[in-house]
Every structure is written in C-alpha cells, then in structure tokens.
User: What shape does this take?
Amino acid sequence: EHLRVLDLGKRITFINSKSEDVSWNTSIDMMFIDGWHSYDAVMADFDKFSSYVVKNGIIAIHDVFLYNDTVGTAAQDLLDTGKLQHLETVDDVFSDDRRIGMLIGRMGGKI
Assistant: This one.
C-alpha cells in the first residue's frame, strides 16, 4: 500500500521469498536485507544479490542487534572479509526497549 501511495512501485521491488527461489538480473542501487533471521539466510541474500549492486551502491542489513548471534555475526563477517564497507550503524530501539539496529554499508572497496 505504501509503495502505491508514494508512487514508488516503479523504483522499489519488494521480494518476499527465499533467495534460492528468486530469479534476478537487474541492477540494484540499494539493497535492504530483512528476511529470515539466520546467519545462513543473511549470507544467502547477500551472495545471491550483492553482485547486482551498482558501484558505490548501498546494502542495509536490519536487526543486527536484535539477532546479534545470527544476523549481527553475518554482518560482521561481511565487514571482516572486506565484502562490505561500513558506513553507519543505526541503533534504533523497539517499543519494548529491544535494540534492533541496522548496519549500512557499501560494497567492498574504498569510497
């Protein structure tokens, strides 16, 4: 509904499927990973779609604090291996005081 109201349907593609079930061949300016909260799922999303992210494109990974042992670990591994360059970490707090957090980065390499 929000995509329609804001007229973003031509600019944003929402995918609600497992990475292995998606066929993709279009460039991506900004990728937002917020799916299944396991280490393997985050890495599968990254591995499947990161090659389509344009030079200096943005990748955001949500729930890095809330699921620190899975999502957070995957995000940290992407940083440690140089596959993702850290830009910013947003520390947001959910309504019941749980830290959610989002890592925002660029594809590997220098800005």
Q: What stands out?
A: The beta strands are 28-33, 53-62, 84-90, 102-107. The first strand starts at residue 28 and ends at 33.
